[in-house]
Amino acid sequence: MEKYVYIEGKKYRRGYTTGSCAAAASKASVHMLLTKESIGSINIDTPKGIPLTLEVKNVEIKNNYSICSIEKDGGDDIDATHAMDIFAKAELVNREAEDIIVIGGVGIGIVTKKGLSVEVGKHAINPVPMKMIKSEVRKVLGGKNNLLNNKSLKITIFAPKGEEVAKKTFNSKLGIVGGISILGTTGIVEPMSEEGWKKSLSIELEMKKAQGVNKIILVPGNHGEEFIRYYLKIDMSNCVRMSNFIGYMLNEAKRLGFKKILMAGHIGKFIKISAGIFNTHSKVCDARNEIMIANLALMGADLDFLKEINECVTAEGAVEIIDKSKYTEIYNVLCNKCKERAEEYLNEDIQVEVYMFRMDKSLLGKSKNADLLMEDFR
């Protein structure tokens, strides 16, 4: 594997997924079960087409089973599972319907809600890692199922620290309890992977749809959730984070068939949406002052006032000045522009309403029908 990639001129190290760890540990444990010989490393292929050679750790070989682990390496895209050991136990059991059976054990979460790619009640080993595990194990067998002596090969994936580590992940929000997920569609962790982040956000939307939800609340993050919970007092079961990926999540909501979308966010992000900016990360675009000044000018604000706003380093600083002026209607103007921009962006019969708040989570403004839509969520 090419260990490094360059992003915006900076060097970052690649890693590999929990799915790759599970596949490698499974292959190694099966090899050692059948040969009764310890190995120090194992080779696997990944869906991305990049082969891996991974160190085998925590080896235990007995007459009727074998256990080993692979240490997860997230590269420079470090997450909660980085450096934890993913174990596999291989054993021969009485013949079952399948020759290779893969289950989860201690520290692997159990799916409790519909909408994920794993059935409710089963351990969170996603389809691609499951396919990888079975594919790598079959390479050990080499098509010779007679090696199993008319038995089935049972592989248990487990992670002793999984339940503790899972508290630092999004699993609880996704309805995965008791441990981590075995994930990865390519087997390789690409550093600074925006696509992976987006996909994790999409999964929540897909789950809501699978649970029968037909309208959704989108917020950038923690602050938006707190505003929904404590100010609007709406049931949080309809609320999904979108981070900075406003356009992406609006399109995902459209794809999944949501017809009503309530958005709530801090003015620092939502003022960008009012100007048609649908990725609100400051590295992508930051024209908060320019947008505020243009709208205040259209309201008749004089030059000295606009200059004072232009000196503000943050949107919150501008709010302090505007709150003492006669231009507080600017907040509703911005919310209605957010609504119009979002509905134009979606280009379909989907209602969008918007709330905007200060850093202390108090209300700044709202679009014209926001309160009516909010009542639908009560």
Automatic annotation (TrEMBL):
Top-level taxonomic group: Bacteria
Pathway(s) it belongs to: Cofactor biosynthesis; adenosylcobalamin biosynthesis; cob(II)yrinate a,c-diamide from sirohydrochlorin (anaerobic route): step 6/10
GO MF annotation terms: methyltransferase activity
Catalytic activity of the protein: Co-precorrin-5B + S-adenosyl-L-methionine = Co-precorrin-6A + S-adenosyl-L-homocysteine
Coiled-coil segments on the chain, per record: none
Keyword terms: Cobalamin biosynthesis, Methyltransferase, S-adenosyl-L-methionine, Transferase
EC number: 2.1.1.195
Pfam families xrefs: CbiD
InterPro entries hit by this protein: CbiD, CbiD_sf
Stored Gene3D superfamilies: CbiD-like
GO terms classed as biological process: methylation
HAMAP family found in the cross-reference section: CbiD
Family the UniProt entry places it in: Belongs to the CbiD family.
The protein's name: Cobalt-precorrin-5B C(1)-methyltransferase
Gene: cbiD
